[in-house]
Amino acid sequence: MAGKRRRVGIMGGTFDPIHVGHLMTAEAVRNEYHLDKVIFIPAANPPHKQQQQVTPAIHRFMMTVLATCSNPYFEVSSLEMNRPGPSYTIDTIYELVHRFGEDTDFYFITGADAIQEIPTWDRIEELLGLCQFIAATRQGCVPNVDNIKEYFGELGEKRIHRLATPELEISSTDIRDRIRKGYSIKYIVPTAVEQYIYKEGLYK
Hints:
Blueprint: E1 6-13, H1 20-32, E2 37-42, H2 57-68, E3 74-76, H3 89-100, E4 104-111, H4 124-130, E5 131-137, H5 142-151, H6 154-159, E6 160-164, H7 172-181, H8 191-200
Parallel strand pairs: 1-2, 1-4, 2-3, 4-5, 5-6
Helix pairs in contact: 2-8, 3-4
């Protein structure tokens, strides 16, 4: 009798900073798809943000660790930080396949807005063959996901899914802006992340 396949979620992103929306999305997907764990992987050098200023990876990694440490099903990997050059998801997934073995199914968790960009990702059809994509949707974003599924045809229908998640109008951009303006970020990010941001003087 074959052993039970593991189901591992991958939460990639810049996490600049990580916020409660990321955490609620990851937990919703974990429950719906019965994932054994969700691995958060901060992008060290995100290819799509080469022209933008990004907080040093060590700070984003530390904030992600602080945000996830209370959930026994969440863990954080420095995999992309340990690899030179741009952080391409295809390279990350190949390394995870090597580490976990062939008996693991991977679910890449992203937002409905971000999934519109995946046709531009490096070796995207190859990537869709290695992992399934779960797009967290909120009201008004469903057509975005359906359009992307249609773009990839049968592969998109099989490998891209959408899941309605709690509606939270939170973005890392807004959080950075609030800090620059001196506004509170309490309850938008976990308390430990809030304390770390102020301690390190980030986003001033």
